[in-house]
Amino acid sequence: MSNEPSASGAPLFGPDRRRFFLVGAVAAAGLGTGIGLLSESNTRASVNRHGAAAPGTPAARSRYLQIVAHEDDDLLFMTPDLSESLRAGSAHLTVYLSAGESKAGVPPDTHDVNAYVAERETGLRTAYALMLGVRDRWRQETLTAGSLRLQSYSLVDRPDIRLVFMLLPDGRDPRASLSWHTLGKLWSAEGHPERCGWTQAPEGSPYRRCLSREDVLTALTDLIQSFRPTVVRAQDTAPDERYSADHPDHIAAARFAGEAVRRYVARHPDRLVLQVNYRDYNIRNLAVNLSEADNKFKQRVFAAYSAHDYRINAENPHWDAYEARMVYRWPRGTGFTATDTVYAVGGGRLVAWRRTGGRWSAPRFLGDPGGPLAPAVATAGPVVLGLRSDTGEIVAYDQRGWRSLGRPDPAKIRNQAGTPVAVVDGSGMVAAFVRNGRGGVSARFLGASGWSHAWTDLPGIDLKQVASPQPKKKKHLRYGDVQDGLAAVVTDGGLIELFAATRSQILWWRQRAQGKPLVFAGALPVAGAIAPLSAEQADGRIRVLFREPWTARTLTISRQVAAKLWDSPAVVSAARGLDGEPPVTGRPPRVQLVGVPAPLPGGGELCALGADGRLHVASRSGGTKVAWRAIGR
């Protein structure tokens, strides 16, 4: 590899969304030397020889920022999303908060700590070049963000691809000035500006300094300000406590990322930033959900990195488990559309596009829910439901504004709830469902007299099915196994049916009468399912779509609405899907997406959130030739 140093303090430069949505490596073109200097002019050239996106294309409009803790977190937990959006030709900036040195050089280990940090960075550059299919040649630069000078590398053949290293100590380094868990201690240091952690850099290095919480946040916000991402990828702010424990650095990095995005959006409320959060260590407790081809490519990419990391395969036996999976912390699902309205979450706030007289408005932010929202929302009748990602509260928005529906869990269960789903039955009652932190399903109902008094648990779930491997200091050690990604459908008779996947089966609830609670109807005759699910009624049949564990095939199981017995599962060859999202049918737009398409009520139009930060809509009346159009400039 060749490094070509440039002048210190150089300015910054200037999402294929998946197997079924990939356009291909499109188009090339001239990026300026400052972030945000992409030309929007049209060009005849669709690609250049290095695969950069052509100006004016959706891929050029899509700009991805990854903020992670360590130098392998993006490769292990955000891929294949990362590799596919790179190949689509979009600009990428990845920020690594920790130097990742761990216990290198701590006796009895004899490795040189600074050499190990440099080797991990080399491995990353090699892996990124492999994913892009370009030469492994990088230009080393020093960037200024806030008051910090940051180490940075940009690809010579693709200068819109940049890696930035903040070099804070790894959480497992006992030599750090704050001892263990520097990132977590800085996150918790709000109101203590004097607390700082020295970076892992040699004495005399321009990157050697003591960073405070505000230093980190200001630098991240400044990077966002300069880069102007349309999509921000981060880790898990509230890992699922039912399964393997996460690294404290992952959690702190995710929280720093979320706060930096919120600060940026507060300055620029007109800019829509879509956020995607990924589960980390605990994905190894879930079924394999990547195809064989994706798994093999991810293994190849990680091998290119791990050739430069002596600790791989020495301390953690789970590398192959991470390579076979990629799971969203909060799947978006298909519940974000309402009559003539589409909802999304941008920078933790609710945003809406509204259609009037056949014309769509620009996106508009809808008040303050009191704290940041998780990326997924659900609409039903007059309300929109979301999850406060900082507290685990379910919040509701209607014409009167925001209100809290409280947490579906007792105080001893922390911020563990999933995102809600909601439907309206034939009586007009709104039913809201959420996977609670105890591994079950909780429900609340909105009728003529208002919301029901409290969240109630649906029957039929064994809440002692999962023995958590989390530290035994927790009192609540056994849980149910329901996964995020519930699916609800209303029959032609106005009755609700609800489906939830565990790691071994699909559970089923149904209404016996409109306006009444749901009863447990049993488990579907399937050998297992990968959440999230999708469900629909068509032609007098209820269909549940799910992905098969280990094969990643899309299957469907169905029955006549009036029947109780289900047919055998069948393969759906024409289904569209995203790893971590529910399978859907229909023709997607030829652009990078965040989430899957969903129909407007009535089925006349399909809607999708583009990684370019725009709403994409299409008429469903065009047969196989669906013409998608983007809303906004």
TrEMBL record:
The entry's keywords: Membrane, Transmembrane, Transmembrane helix, Zinc
Instruction: Tell me the first and last residues of the signal peptide.
Output: none
InterPro entries associated with the record: GlcNAc_PI_deacetylase-related, LmbE-like_dom_sf, TAT_signal
Database matches in PROSITE patterns: TAT
Q: Which residues are listed as membrane-spanning? A: 20-39
In its UniProt entry, the species of origin is given as Actinoallomurus vinaceus
Q: What is this protein called?
A: PIG-L family deacetylase
Tell me where on the tree of life, at the top rank, the source sits: Bacteria
